[in-house]
């Protein structure tokens, strides 16, 4: 992590800019079907933070929230994206009180270098959905079906 302990980030069009302060609670790759749909890719790479660690610097007016109700747990996941360029930015489980203060931030929108010191996943979740051609990332812990915003969160 950077020495200042602040990570900046933005969406593709740069209208939305944010800062996160302090270390993440958890970093993870999610192989669930919904993360695949929302990224349009093979998995999502997120970092979980306390909501008060996230500061939106600009672009609040272009943020849109999609309430994702089609989850295995039945919990609603609020997926926030830039309505101008469509970048997925944040996700939170606002219907679930136990994680009401947690936000997942897409690592792809963070301004990071390529090194493991900048960012690396600690966990892989929904591994039962992982594409066969993707090998488990070295150094991660796997879970067949962890619901990040559900009650059985990894401690
Ligand atoms: Zn944008
Ligand atoms: Zn997912």
From TrEMBL:
Keyword terms of this UniProt record: Lyase, Metal-binding, Zinc
Family annotation (SUPFAM superfamilies): Mss4-like
Superkingdom of this protein's organism: Eukaryota
Coiled coil: none
Any GO molecular function: metal ion binding
Every CENP-V/GFA domain range: 7-120
Cited PANTHER family: DUF636 DOMAIN PROTEIN (AFU_ORTHOLOGUE AFUA_6G11530), GFA DOMAIN-CONTAINING PROTEIN
Family of this protein: Belongs to the Gfa family.
Protein name as annotated: CENP-V/GFA domain-containing protein
Organism, as annotated: Penicillium atrosanguineum
């Amino acid at each position: 992590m950077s020495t200042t302990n602040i990570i900046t980030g933005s969406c593709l069009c740069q209208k939305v800019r944010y800062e996160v302060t302090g270390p993440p609670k958890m970093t993870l790759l999610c192989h669930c079907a919904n993360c695949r749909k929302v990224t349009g890719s093979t998995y999502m790479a997120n970092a979980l933070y306390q909501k008060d660690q996230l500061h939106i610097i600009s672009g609040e007016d272009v943020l849109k929230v999609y309430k994702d109700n089609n989850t295995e747990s039945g919990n609603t996941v609020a997926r926030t994206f830039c309505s101008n360029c469509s970048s997925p930015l944040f996700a939170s489980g606002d219907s679930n009180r136990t994680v009401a203060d947690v936000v997942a931030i897409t690592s792809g929108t963070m301004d990071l270098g390529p090194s493991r010191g900048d960012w690396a996943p600690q966990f892989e979740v929904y591994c039962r959905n992982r594409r066969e051609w993707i090998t488990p990332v070295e150094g991660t812990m796997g879970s067949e079906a962890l619901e990040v915003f559900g009650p059985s969160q990894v401690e």
